[in-house]
Amino acid sequence: MPITTNDSLAPLRLLQLVSPSLPVGAFTYSQGLEWATECGWVADEQTLKRWIESLMESSMAYLELPVLARLYQAAATKDAEALTYWSHYLVASRETAELRLEERNRGRAMASLLPELGIPVSQENLPLFRQCQLAGFAQAAQHWQIPLKAAAAGYLWGWLESMTLAGVKIIPLGQTAGQRIIASLTLRVPEIVRIGLDVDDAQIGASCTAQAIASSLHETQYTRIYRS
């Protein structure tokens, strides 16, 4: 069976979307991990792995991936109402001011980037993309014909890498320890994606109490290098 241009480009476009070099500022956020390390909740390779895995099983599986699926479908069908609803839903589900601000800051960066990559953004949808980075990610994935399952796996893996590298810097750990964490938790990615894409509307939502506490206290942390 011949490989079409879209077949060959979609995986490469996904790599671009989840690359740490994508200028949306992902590397500047720890999502509460900096304070969790400061207070001793996360102190070594094993506790960092447990912290990240817990968030994969809660926030990623029951909030971000299900919302990504709905934003992807809304982008495919040009359903402005659904796009608006799920963008607002995700921002409202962020449990602290820092996490909401992160979503909006990354959203503004993504909204500015999309036209530069040849991805159309209507004036009607531009305010949504500016407040919700995940909406812009979904728009790009759909435009580049990246299959939803692959887009969800890529998004999750990119988040996993970003969080692990933040932990490696903050604790600190060696790069090899970080790669062991990524290698181990990558095995969970297919399962988490399957769960996330099977979640019903009424099940969407996750409360991550430890992360919410850490993120709230990070706002007044005396010394910090991350924005959340």
UniProtKB/TrEMBL annotation:
It comes from Sedimenticola thiotaurini. UreD, UreF and UreG form a complex that acts as a GTP-hydrolysis-dependent molecular chaperone, activating the urease apoprotein by helping to assemble the nickel containing metallocenter of UreC. The UreE protein probably delivers the nickel. One of its GO terms (molecular function) is nickel cation binding. The keyword Oxidoreductase does not apply. Transmembrane segments: none annotated. It is found in: Cytoplasm. Required for maturation of urease via the functional incorporation of the urease nickel metallocenter. It comes from the Bacteria. This is Urease accessory protein UreF. One of its GO terms (cellular component) is cytoplasm. Its main location: cytoplasm. The gene is ureF. Pfam families: UreF (PF01730).
